[in-house]
Amino acid sequence: MNTGNYVTILGTGNALATRCYNTCFTLHGSNGELLLVDAGGGNGILSQLDHAGIDLCSIHDMFITHTHSTKELQFGFVATLSNDKKLCCLGDEPYNPLCRQYAENADILMSEAFCLYEDRERFLPYEKHHSTAIDAARAAEELHARTLILYHTEDRTLASRREKYTAEARSVFSGKVLVPDDFERIDLV
Predict the structure, then answer these.
(1) Would you say residue 119 lies in a domain?
(2) Beta-sheet strands, E only, within 1-139
(3) What tens digit of pLDDT does each residue of 118-177 get?
(4) Is 43 helix (H, G, I), strand (E, B) or coil?
(5) Which one of 62, 153, 186, 188 is most buried, counting C-beta atoms within 10 A?
């Protein structure tokens, strides 16, 4: 059955989040393929998959973006979807200009946004090799992305996160901005 491409967000939080699950998601292909990106840490992923109605045995592949060590490489990926849309996941760190050829002109750009710029002194994103929502949005604008999905955030502002992160990103990015919650489905059209 052809159901189109979509992402199920299993977690949106950074490594220290306790009010939402650590960042991970599934990418659903139009022909039933299922890619798990990261796992959030520990066996909690099993509960997240169950809550989202995703059978563990249906996962075809898994992509790990990082190991939470500054000595290890961080990875992102580019996927061409069945509708010829280009999805670029930057992984767990800010956009690296060395990856421009892969990220440029993405229809969907997925980027971590550890906190708002106004909260940078509280959450210290730069010390942790992360970016703010406005940093991610500036990169998306420079790369000519069409849609920006922000995730991997702090969890102290969940009640206002979507509104405030979206506003900050829209101040410099002309495309569509999405700030999902855990278990949200995003159709990739």
Answers:
(1) yes
(2) 6-11, 24-28, 34-37, 61-63, 77-80, 86-89, 108-112
(3) 999 999 999 989 999 999 999 999 999 999 999 999 999 999 999 999 999 999 999 999
(4) coil
(5) 153
Domains contained in the chain, number: 1
Residues 6 or more apart whose Cβ sits within 8 Å of residue 71: none
Strands 77-80 and 86-89 come out as: antiparallel
- Where in 54-144 does DSSP place strands (E)? 61-63, 77-80, 86-89, 108-112
Backbone region of residue 53 per phi and psi (left: phi > 0; alpha: psi in -120 to 50; beta: other values):
left
79 Cβ contact list (under 8 Å, min separation 6): 27, 35, 86, 87, 88, 89
| Residue 1 domain flag | no
Domain that holds residue 114: 6-187
CATH number, position 108: 3.60.15.10
The whole-number pLDDT of residue 59 equals 96
